[in-house]
Model the fold of this input.
Amino acid sequence: MARAIWTGHIDLGKQHVGVKLYSAVEDRTVHFHLLHAKDRAPVQQHIVRKDTGKDVSKEEMRKAYALDRSTAVILQADDLEKLVPPESRDINLCRFVPRAAIGDQWFDRPYYLGPDKDDEDYFALAAALEQKQVFGIMRWVMRKKRYVGALSSLDGYLVLTTLRRAEQVLSFSGVEPAKTSAPLASELKLAKQLVDSISADFDPKLWHNEYHDRLCKLIAAKARGEKLEPVRKKKAAPQRDLAATLRASIAAAKEKKVA
Amino acid sequence: MPKRKSSKAPPAASAEESSPRVRPIWTGTITFGLVSIPVDLLTSVRARETAMKLVDEEGHPLGRQYFCSKEDKKLDQDDLVRGYETDDGKMVVITDEEFESVAPEMSPDIELRNFVPLEQIPPLYFSKPYFLAPTGKSSKAYNLLAATMEAAGKVGIGSFVMRGHEYLVAILSDNGVLRADTLRYADEVRTPDSIGLPKATKPSARKVSQFAKVIEEFTRKEMDPAELEDDEAEALHKLVEEKEKNADDVVKQSHLDEADAESEQDGGNVIDLMAVLRKSLSKNAVVKNATGAKPISFAEHRAKRAVNKSDTKPPAAKRPARPKSKKGARKRAKR
Done:
C-alpha cells in the first residue's frame, strides 16, 4: 500500500469530498553515481563563485531575482517567508470544462486521489465526472506551494493532474506552409490511407522500454565480470518521391497486417 | 532490478550553454511508413516566472561545480564516468561506449508505429511537451504529416532514444506545427490497484446525480486564463518591485545572467520559436503565450504597468534593453 502524500478535501459549492493524494508516477529510471574517471571516487557538488571559483557556504548563499544582466534583487529568508501561501486543506473548484478544453501541453504531474473516510461520495463524484466528460479546474496549496490542477476520472477513480502555468505554455496560430511545400491532394489522400492502415486504440501496454531492459542486462553482466555483444545498428532506407513512398508504405502496412 | 541511486542517467550532452542561436535538444528523423521527415526537437516549456538565481551575499553569481571527493579537485564533464552501485555495494562503471551499445536505435529515428485518437491518451501519461521544426531543404513531408493527422484527428505514437533514455512519444499536429509529447510507459504509471485504493463500489444514483448537477452548474466552455495565472509570480513581482524602489538588497554585478538557476528544474530556456518557424515553415507564424493576454516577461509586465500608470509615457520608454537581456539570462541558465 502506497503512502498518501497529502490529505485534503475537494470543495464543490456545498459539497465536500475528503481525499488522499498519491503520486501516480513510479520512477523506473536507472540512477547512477557520478564518479571521477581517474580514481573512481564519488563526485561531490559544491557551490562556487563563478568568477573566482571559490567555495561558498550554505549560509552565504542567497536567492536573487534578476532584473537584467547586471541587476538583481536579493530575497532574504524573511522575504521568502512572506511569499509562502497560507496553509489550507481545501482543493477549490474554479470551473468545469469539456475535456477538449485542456490541451496536452498543460499536463504536468499526475496524482491519484483516494477516498478519505467517505467512499460513497468519492465514487459518486468520479462517476459524475465520467458521465459529464469534463475536467474540474482546481486550485490548492500543498506543502507551502500553490497548485492548479485538472480533476478527472479514470476507470472509476479520481485523478488530479497539476497544470503548467499560463506563462509556460505557448501556442501557435497563422501557420501556413509556403505554396511550394504544401502537400498535393493526391498525396494527402495516400497519407490518410497510410494513417488509417496503422490506426489503433491507445494501448500503452504495447510499448516497452527496451533500452531500460538492455541497460539493466548490461549492468548485471558487468557486475558478473562478463561482456555483452553490442547490438547492431539499423540502416535507414533511402527516400524516394513522396507519392511513391506513400504507396510502398501502404503496401508494406497491408502485408504486415496479413502476416 | 537496478535500484535507484542519486544522480540521474548516462551520457551528458549538456553542452548547450550560451549560444545566441536556437539549439535543438535533439535532431533526427520522424518516419511514418517509408516517409522520413528530418526535424529538430525544441523545448516548449518556458521557465516559470518565479525562477530565481543563485548568488552570494554581495550578489556574485554562483554555480554548481563537481569536485572529486578524494583529491578535492575541480572536475569537468570529461573527467566523469557513471557508476552503478549493486545491491551488494559493488560499483560497476558503465562507459559512454557501453551506454551507446545498448541503444542501437541511436540512429536518430522516431518511427511512428501507430496512430491513435488524441483523446484516448489519459492526462497521466503526458510527461513533457516539445516542438518539432522541419530541417533539411523541403518541409513538404512535414506539412503532409501535420495536415493528415489534423484531418484524421489522430496522433502518431513511437519511441526514440535521447540522451541515454528511451522515450515513448506522441507526435501531434497543432495548427500546422508538429509537436511531440513524451509519454510515460505503462510501468511508470501506477494504478488504483498498485497504490492499494479500495475496490470501486457502485455509488447510489441519487448521489451521482447530485454531483452531476453541481458539475452542470459550474461547467463553462473554455478555460479562464485568469484562473491559470501564477499567483506566486504575482506576489514575487510585487515584493521585488517594492524592494527595488526602496533600494533594498538591489545588487549590481557583472555576468549575473551566468548564475545558475536556484532550482535545478527551473533552468528552462527561452528560444525564439517564432524565428525558427518563420525560417523553416511559415512567414505568417504567430507564437503566443497560452493566454495571449498576459505579458511574457517581467520586464514587459512592468513596462506595461508603467505605461498604464502614466499615459504621458510613450511605449518607447519600455526600456528596450530589458526583454532582450532577460532572454539571454534565461537561455544561459539552462543546465
